Amino acid sequence: MTKKVLRTFQYIFLSICAFVSIFPFFWMIIAATNKSVDVTKGTLMPGSYFMENLKAVLSSDLQYTTAFKNSLIISVVTTILAMIVSSAAGYAFVIYRSKSRERVFNIILLSMMVPFAALMVPLFRLFSKFNSVPLLKTIALNTPGAVIVIGISTAFLIFFFRQNTESFPKELIEAARIDGVGELGIFFKIFMPTMKSTYAAAIIVTFMNSWNNYLWPLIALQSPERRTLPLVISAMGSSYTPDYGMMMTAVVLATVPTALIFFLMQKQFVAGMTGSVKG
Amino acid sequence: MKLKRLAAVLLAGTMLFGATATVSAEEKAADEITIWAWDEAFNIKAANVAKEMYAETNPDVEVNVVTMAQDDIVAKLNTSLASGSYEGLPDIVLIEDYRIQGYLNAYPDEFAVLSDIASPDEFAEYKTGVNQVDGKMYGIPFDSGVAAVFYRTDYIEEAGYTAEDMQDLTWDKYIEIGQAVQEKTGKYMLTLDPSDLGQIRMMLQSAGAWYTDAEGNVTIKDNQALKDAINTYKKIVDSGISKQVADWDQFVGAFNSGEVASVPTGCWISPSVLGAEDQSGKWAVAPFPRMAENEASVNASSIGGAGWYVLKNVGHEDAAKAFLKDTFASNVDLMNQLAVDINLVSTLKASSEAENYNKGVEFYGGQEIFKDFAEWTNEVPAVNYGEDTYAIEDIMTEVVQAIVGGADVDETLEMYQTQIEGAVAN
């Protein structure tokens, strides 16, 4: 009897949690199909205004499609480079021995404790100097490079890969070395494929962070044609008379890539769970 | 190695992006000016109309108008000015009246003096109090934030009152009407958002007062106008005529869906009121109520509003000033056009002569709202907002809630005086 009561409470509690997390998405989709006035009136029924909202988004002076493209380029390049750089760092911290290894790692961890707001002004000054150095122009202010470079090696990712490399069977590496595979080959051909699930999780996190990143792109990217999606959506919301329908349509479109990445990676995530060392 | 090649291609790719980016930055012509503002449907549109008009006589000047959220503009100005890096900053930027004193005091050498292209007496008096330092004018006033009571004529009539009763209002009379409205129609008189002190701010300015005095000192304790304003606010809450809302969205929703009989706020709310097309002819506009117990209080106030400023170290100071001179600083035709396009109530005195200012608006029962707004704008008492309006309000929301909840006014204000002084000293 008590078991049944407990069950009921569990279900009620979980239903509330589910409702709270799903409702904003529901509201977002409803709002995207309605006129702004109806949204403020609090309608919860799907409307027929989606195409008009979509047209308003695409024809806006804010260059939504350009921003979408910028976001996509920045996020994809950041994610790919981050996977190579950060995982190599995490891998090296476990596999290769060195006296100062722990010290270096602690310094990297310490950098996680400094809030980004404190780094903002110095970083901005540094990047604004890059324009006068020929080779560094590619990552100077107002280029996608400036945003990408900040995202490719984060303390969190290195930490994440180091923790996961601990569980990587060292026997595999030894076996490969005996077979004459080079160190790079071991990393790319043996480590990477076996750690698929780790990479999948890291890709989801990195892509989402990069896609939603706001503060640094806001400061680093100046001209309107370089802006990323969060900046454009934020600009849409600052009107005295915001067009909620149009804004929510823009948000719905902006959610699509992260959702896609998540579902694509989820499959890999599960596939990676199957073991690597077979008898 | 396939992967090596892939990495190389990717790196080369990013370099290519970077290269094209720097080229476009260098191409910027000498007579190219950039303007930042934040509302696509309002000030951005205004800048674009001004740009078109200016292009007719100055085809060789290129004007870029960029939309950016107001908070983003603040963040970018702060980082760039603090680090002394002007790359990517605009030549002309719209800054809210409540914030501008902070910028002018913190970065006195960054803003261009505009005294040579405009004079304060061409604008509504209250707008030029905030954009001057030592008698020099740094900004061109833009929109009026003149306060008014937008009200539903049908609800007011049903409650037994007329448009006549809405003129020369005091807050006591307003509450009386509100109670009648509630009794007869079951509607609330207005919405209040406990996290937004806009009502208090408007009441303060109607009495020519603020949270700070003319020298910028915090005056919370012994501030009679503030005391009267908070007491009035408490009276409204206690009378039960207000519906509580939590954000902007609900605030707009309440009058769009006909839940409230009046909206006492800045004239810039008009486009949102117009949004509910089915209510056409049912609205009218009356002057803002005064506080009867405060002798200084008049039937005029303001909320919000902004002005155009020129950043002089970005590199196109002269072009930017020339642009403002021919547009927002003097052009009545532009103001006439903007009245129709974006419902702008200009603070340029000459614009009250404009044709569209003397036309009735059908939605408001044929009332000549622009003429009224322009008239009331000139009656708004001038107030120096100081540097810290928003910082002070962060704390004041607590104070007001405590007093509404029953705490003693004098005691509470005295208690918070030092705390607020400390908060703004940083």
Mind explaining what this structure looks like?
The complex is a heterodimer of chains A (279) and B (426). Helix content of chain A is 73%, strand content 0%. Chain A contains 14 helices and no strands. Chain A has helices at 2-32, 36-40, 50-59, 64-95, 101-111, 116-129, 144-152, 155-165, 170-178, 183-194, 196-212, 215-220, 229-236, 244-271. In chain A, helix 3 (50-59) packs across helix 14, helix 9 (170-178) packs antiparallel against helix 10 and helix 11 packs antiparallel against helix 14. Chain A is globular. The model of chain A is unreliable at 275-279 (pLDDT under 50). The longest helix of chain B has 25 residues, at 2-26. Chain B starts with a helix and ends with a helix. Chains A and B meet through helix 2, helix 4, helix 6, helix 7 and helix 12 of A and helix 1, strand 2, helix 3 and helix 10 of B.
How is this fold's topology laid out?
The complex is a heterodimer of chains A (279) and B (426).
Chain A: H1 2-32, H2 36-40, H3 50-59, H4 64-95, H5 101-111, H6 116-129, H7 144-152, H8 155-165, H9 170-178, H10 183-194, H11 196-212, H12 215-220, H13 229-236, H14 244-271
Helix pairs in contact in A: 1-14, 3-14, 4-7, 4-8, 4-11, 9-10, 11-14
Chain B: H1 2-26, E1 32-37, H2 43-57, E2 62-67, H3 70-83, E3 92-96, H4 97-106, H5 125-128, E4 132-133, E5 136-137, E6 139-141, E7 147-152, H6 153-158, H7 171-185, E8 190-192, H8 198-206, H9 224-239, E9 242-244, H10 248-256, E10 262-266, H11 270-274, E11 283-287, E12 306-310, H12 317-326, H13 332-342, H14 369-377, H15 389-404, H16 409-425
Helix pairs in contact in B: 2-13, 7-9, 8-9, 15-16
Organism (chain A): Blautia caecimuris
Keywords (chain A): Cell membrane, Membrane, Transmembrane, Transmembrane helix, Transport
Domain ABC transmembrane type-1 (chain A): 68-265
